């Protein structure tokens, strides 16, 4: 419930309160370059070829590369709003909690999900680039 409430609050803030901060001139990243390959990968590499499993796998893969448009915008403009950098920092911190969860589940429940771990590693690598910029600026 807390996760869903936070997700709705984030969407509300993006589309209502901070709508004026959107820079359409610099936002040239083509989202279909992420969605189409991720969709294809979800069909090819999943645990079970069922609609819900493919959708779950799609969401895991898409989450792992969802930072790319923001990183593209930051690298293109060379700057970002303070609220944006803090938001991205806490998204990365959220991802770090996922890593702790995987370690915990592996050692105490003997649970190992290769799809989630590989996608998480990809996302962590992408966030490392942002964390470097965040700390140095």
Automatic annotation (TrEMBL):
A GO BP entry: vesicle-mediated transport
Keyword Plastid appears in the UniProt entry: no
Organism: Cirrhinus mrigala
Superkingdom of source: Eukaryota
Protein name (Swiss-Prot/TrEMBL): ER lumen protein-retaining receptor
Family label: Belongs to the ERD2 family.
Cellular component annotations (GO), alphabetically ordered: COPI-coated vesicle membrane; endoplasmic reticulum membrane; Golgi membrane
Topology class, membrane: Multi-pass membrane protein
Pfam families given in the database record: ER_lumen_recept
InterPro entries in the record: ER_ret_rcpt
UniProt KW Transmembrane keyword: yes
Residues spanning the membrane: 54-75, 87-108, 114-135
PROSITE patterns: ER_LUMEN_RECEPTOR_2
Localization of this protein: Cytoplasmic vesicle, COPI-coated vesicle membrane; Endoplasmic reticulum membrane; Golgi apparatus membrane
Major place of residence: membrane
Keywords: Cytoplasmic vesicle, Endoplasmic reticulum, ER-Golgi transport, Membrane, Protein transport, Receptor, Transmembrane, Transmembrane helix, Transport
């Amino acid at each position: 419930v807390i996760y869903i409430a936070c997700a709705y609050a984030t969407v509300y803030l993006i589309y209502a309160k901070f709508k004026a901060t959107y820079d359409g001139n610099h936002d040239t990243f083509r989202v279909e370059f992420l969605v189409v390959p991720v969709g294809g990968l979800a069909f090819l590499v999943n645990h079970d070829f069922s609609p819900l499993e493919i959708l779950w796998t799609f969401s895991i893969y898409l989450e792992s590369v969802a930072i790319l448009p923001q990183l593209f915008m930051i690298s293109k403009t060379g700057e970002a709003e303070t609220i944006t950098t803090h938001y991205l920092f806490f998204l990365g911190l959220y991802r770090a909690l996922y890593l702790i969860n995987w370690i915990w589940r592996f050692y105490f429940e003997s649970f190992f999900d290769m799809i989630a771990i590989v996608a998480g590693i990809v996302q962590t690598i992408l966030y490392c680039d942002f964390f470097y910029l965040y700390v140095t600026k």
